[in-house]
Write a structure and sequence with these properties.
9-stranded mixed sheet, 18% helix
Length: 212
């Protein structure tokens, strides 16, 4: 039986991209291929700006699960009182496509979830996903070149938006990098979107609202 290592699972609102404001269960998988998640290794990581804790299985509802067990845990976090609207789960990380596979997607579908993934695009996607969001990282080979939204953290030297404009995505988002230069990054992102209307602005509204 396949075992999935999960950092945390929680119910919240999607804070960024095309699905901003949508209620969702977030399932954060442990591990990534661009950084170990340990601060002592950050200096040699391919992606050095990640601010997400995906190390270990010690978060809320974290642990090791089989496919049906994990799907049932995710379903248990969807409020029973919510009868309207499609159940929605966001598989994230770390890098979720190191673990997310067809048996888990099928189990989530049996629990009536629309299944989304947020990925760095360095791994092929399994069949059955309902929403694919790719966030390319400079220095990492992009193999997943189609999906529903491409969400690029900006600016990233070596991952300029022009590199991705011809890919097969429905939505193209630029998201200002969260850093000590954030206000400067916001101004640069606004200017780029205004000059290149293919791209739309994405803000991390969950940070503004101070929710998970």
């Amino acid at each position: 039986m396949e075992t999935y290592k999960v950092k945390e699972i929680y119910y919240t609102l999607q804070g960024e991209g095309a699905q901003t404001g949508r209620p969702a269960v977030f399932c954060r998988f442990t591990g990534c291929n661009l950084w170990t998640g340990r601060e002592e290794d950050r200096h040699k990581a391919i992606c050095q700006f990640c601010d997400t804790d995906f190390w270990g299985t010690d978060g809320v509802h974290g642990g090791r699960y089989g496919a049906e067990e994990l799907a049932a845990k995710i379903a248990s976090l969807w409020p029973e009182a919510v009868q309207q609207g499609q159940r929605y789960v966001v598989c994230t990380g770390g890098e979720p496509l190191l673990q997310l596979d067809e048996p888990l997607i099928e189990a989530l579908h049996r629990h009536h979830f629309e299944v989304a993934v947020e990925t760095n695009g360095t791994q092929p996607a399994p069949a059955g996903l309902d929403w694919i969001c790719v966030s390319p990282k400079a220095g990492a080979d992009l193999v997943l070149t189609h999906g529903h939204e491409l969400k690029l953290v900006y600016p990233q030297p070596g991952a300029e938006p022009e590199r991705f404009t011809g890919l097969d995505f429905t939505h193209f988002f630029l998201q200002p990098m969260d850093s000590p230069q954030q206000q400067e990054n916001i101004r640069a992102t606004l200017a780029y979107c205004l000059a290149n209307p293919q791209w739309r602005l994405s803000l991390q509204t969950h940070k503004v609202l101070e929710i998970d």
